[in-house]
Amino acid sequence: MKTFGVILLSCFALTLLIDVTNGSNSFTIDYENDRFLMDGLPFRYIGGEIHYFRVPQEYWFDRLFKMKSAGINVLQTYIEWSGHEPREGVYKFDGNYNVTRWIEEAQKAGLYVLLRVGPYICSERDMGGLPWWLMKYDLQLRRNNDIYMKYVKQWFSVLLPMIKPYLYQNGGPIIMVQLENEYGYYSACDNSYMSSLRDIVRSHLGDEIILYTTDNPGLLACGLVDDVFATIDFGTNTQPDDQFKTLRAHRASGPLVNSEFWIGNIDTWGTQHLTKPVDEVTKWLDVLLSYDKNMSLSMYMFHGGTSFGFGSGANNGGYLPRPTTYDVDALLDEAGDPTEKYRAVKNVISKYAPVSKDDIEPSPKLSIGPIDAKLEMDFTQLFSQQFWKKVDSDSPQPFEYLGSRNGLILYSTTIDFKSTSPSMLTINALRDRAYVYIDKVFQGVVSRQEKSLAIPIRAEKGSRLDLIVENQGRTYFGDEISQHKGIFGSVTLGSKTLTKWSHYFIDDWEDFTSLLKFDANVPKQHSGHNSKNALHPAILKAEFVVPFTKTYDTYFNPTNLSKGFAYLNGKCLGRYWPTNGPQITLYTPGVWLKPSPQVNQLILVELEDPPCLISNGTCQLTFDDHPTLNGETPVNW
């Protein structure tokens, strides 16, 4: 274990908390002088973005305190509908989704809040933060149609009354509320939809709250809403004068705001790790802050955190799945530690606003292992478990029609005709990755990301065809957010369409480990297997004791594995894919570990056959005291 300094707390945040709730509690726009007024006085914000659903709740105040210490006075944050209503009519407002506590923690840290209520948020999240179950219905998302708006109204009728007591005029920290997100990018360009959102939100929150939109400067025509304040977003290497001139062509007055000043970069599985240089960020931050004394901005992201579980989505343009990490080269790294960029940005902000003199140092980290993860169930044993739901239909059904949120579905059928040998198996509209088996023998992988949806196989009449399909994350941007997952089309062998499918699935893979029943009496197959006699998808289990009576953050290193999902003590750390990179390690919060002498349990759903699994059914793994996010990636991607 490395030893580090301890964060030095002070009365800095508590002093500023008084400012948040003092005065006449009014926040308005002075259009005549192009500025905000707080309690009648000019107000400018230097903000940053953090998302509660990407940070363990035990660490919320720590991240917000570090934000305040850097001179930030406003937290901008999304509300993620899909996390709060994971199944239709079932709401979650506890744990990491206790959003009112998140707002209270921000106020305690001395921060005002800009609340981005959606319903769509993008944020590289699965389906852009919209609930997956909407895709059970024939509807058009982000449009003013009866079915979609019915569910939006229902959701806002639950959320917004909870939010209202936290508005600034009611003594809380929320000074503005954002409608939708970058709607100008969306092809629908439905002005009646945006107007309806405005009216719904005002019906719950009142006319006093300032509503705002955020859009790319070149796409304002479809993003603007009457009687709603307009802001824009842009990153470094961009002259602010050029961007704000475009805004002024649409809105002649009001304070200038860059709601997302992009200071980092976002990775994709299988492509090079991306960053944004410190000197580039500080140069253009200084340019922005000196541009206009009344101009406000929010940095995206101040702290990215982690898309735990199956929260990460995929970009369009050929399908680009995002990794589990949301480090995004932010000011605080994935574990919440200050980076070189944090210190440099804080130095720039000090020219324009007060910053704390507190020394904030990295938190301690653990190194554990090696530990042995042993095979518990192979492909056949896993799908013989009693917890699988089974649905039969003539054609293959997508995840959403079956009621399955994420993870895997087994599609199975019997080939009832004689085919040529070999014959081409084609999966039309595959979303996203399928492992192909004939009579339990692995044939290969077809993948949407690799643009390969067909594979030659040898099969006899009466052979069983199994397709294990992985949902790698729903698209979060553009018109493709409305695409179903799984198989949404025909499967053909040669010229014939395969019918009479059975589907094996569970509702939500976040809770997968709670369903597993391990039987010590069932033999574990491993020795003598080769790539054709597939073990995968296989379940591996490791049990270990942390060598300390106190736990700290660490990073699970699955280097000896191939691709899959990792669970620690019942919590899903996320997807791993070290054979593709660039992310190798998975951030593991210390609060999810059990201290000595308690036993920790690591469960792995390994989707492929790494050499260690094939050779003896045991894979050695470690937890590292540092992250590895820039691993080697395929040269052709």
UniProtKB/TrEMBL annotation:
Residue ranges of domain Glycoside hydrolase 35 catalytic in the record:
36-351
Q: Which residues form the signal peptide?
A: 1-23
- Please report the stretch or stretches of sequence annotated as the Beta-galactosidase galactose-binding domain: 538-596
Reactions the enzyme catalyzes: Hydrolysis of terminal non-reducing beta-D-galactose residues in beta-D-galactosides
Known EC number? 3.2.1.23
Q: Catalytic center at which residues?
A: E182, E260
What's in the keyword line of the UniProt record? Answer: Glycoprotein, Glycosidase, Hydrolase, Signal
Top-level taxon of the source organism:
Eukaryota
Q: Does the keyword Cell membrane apply?
A: no
Query: Cross-referenced Gene3D superfamilies, in alphabetical order?
Result: Galactose-binding domain-like, Glycosidases
Write out the GO biological process terms: carbohydrate metabolic process
Q: Name one GO molecular function term.
A: beta-galactosidase activity
Question: Domain Beta-galactosidase 1-like first all-beta: where?
Answer: 396-506
Q: Which family does it belong to?
A: Belongs to the glycosyl hydrolase 35 family.
What this protein is called in its record is Beta-galactosidase
Which species does this protein come from? Tetranychus urticae
> What does the organism's lineage look like at the top?
Eukaryota, Metazoa, Ecdysozoa, Arthropoda, Chelicerata
